[in-house]
Amino acid sequence: MKKRQTLSEYKNGVLEGNRSTLAQAITLVESNRPTDKELAAKLVQEILPQTGNSIRIGITGVPGVGKSTFIESFGTTLVNSGRKVAVLAIDPSSQRGKGSILGDKTRMETLAGDKRAFIRPSPSGTSLGGVSAKTREAMLLCEAAGYDTILIETVGVGQSETAVRGMVDFFLLLMLAGAGDELQGIKKGIMEMADALLINKADGNNLKESKLARQHYLQALHLFPPSENGWYPKVELVSSIEKSGLEEAWDMIQQYENHTKSNGFWKKNRSDQRLKWLDENLQMMLSELILSNKSVQSLLDTHKDGIKSGDISPLWVAQEAIKILTQNYS
Ligand code: GDP
C-alpha cells in the first residue's frame, strides 16, 4: 500500500499545482479506508477557499457518439487559448483494473500529454448511478490546483446524467445525426436536462444530415417548458475530427456563463448543489453506518429469505434495523 502524505503535504502540493500530489489527493478522497476518509475530509475543508473559480461542464452521450474524441479536440482548443483544463472521466470499465485507465488515457493522447491539462479517469465502482461518489471532491481538488475548466465525462446510460447535472454549471449532450430514430435512445429526460446539444460528426457525407437533425432537435426542444434559468438550449454542429465548431461551442458556453451570472442563477445553482452534496454524503454515510453494524447484518440475514418470498415486510425489517442502530447510540 502506498504511503500517505501529511495533511499539509497534500494541501501545499495541491495548491502549488503539483500534478502528482493532485493525483494522490484524488486517490485519497476515493479511498474507503476510515483513516483516509478522515484525512480526505480535512483536506477538502482546507482547500475549500481556493475552489469554485472554474467553469464546470458535464458531457454526455451514447457510447460511440465521440465523447472522448470531442474532449480531446475541445480540450486542446481550450488549453491553446490559455485555459487550464481538467478532465474527470467516469470510467465504466475501471473495475477491471489498471488496463482500462491506460486505455482511457490513450483515448485522449494529445491532451493527456499536455502539461496544461490533467486527465483523471475515476472508478465508477462506488457510484451514484455510474458516477463516482467522489467526483465532486476530485473536481474541487482540481480547482484548488488551478484548473479553471473542468470537463466531467459520463457514459450516457441514464442515472449518471442526473448525478452529473447536479454538480456542473453547464450540461452538454452530444448527439449524432441520422442514427435511425432521431432520438437514438437518448431519453427525453436527458434532453430536458441539457443546456446544449452538439451534433458531432458533422463532417463529410454526414454534414447535410447533421443540418437537418439540428432543425429537428431545435423543434423538439421548443416543446419543452422553459427552464428556470431563462436560457434556451442551443443546438450546434461540431466535428471533433475536423475540429470545426469547437470555438463556437466555447463561445456558447461563455454566453451561458454571462447570462446565468447576470441573472443570479449561477450562484443559486451552486448553493443548491452544495446542499445536495451534503444530502448525498449523509445518505451514503448513513447507509454505511447501518450496513456495517453486526446486529443489523444478522437481522438482515435472518429475514432475507422471508422478504424474498413475500412473508416478511421490508418496512418492518427496516424499522427493526433502525431500532437496533439507535439503541446503540442512545
Ligand atoms: P465515445 O464512445 O463517445 O467516447 O466515442 P469515441 O470518441 O471513442 O468515438 C467513436 C468513434 O467515432 C471513433 O471511431 C472516432 O474516431 C469517431 N468520431 C468521433 N468524433 C468524430 C467526428 O467528429 N467525425 C467523424 N467522422 N468521426 C468521429
Automatic annotation (TrEMBL):
It holds the Pfam family MeaB. It is an enzyme of class 3 (hydrolase). CDD domains: MMAA-like. The keyword Hydrolase applies. Transmembrane segments: none annotated. Its EC number is 3.6.5.-. GO terms for molecular function: hydrolase activity. It comes from the Bacteria. Keywords: Hydrolase. The keyword Ribosomal protein does not apply. Belongs to the SIMIBI class G3E GTPase family. ArgK/MeaB subfamily. This is Methylmalonyl Co-A mutase-associated GTPase MeaB. The lineage of its organism: Bacteria, Pseudomonadati, Bacteroidota, Cytophagia, Cytophagales. The gene is meaB.
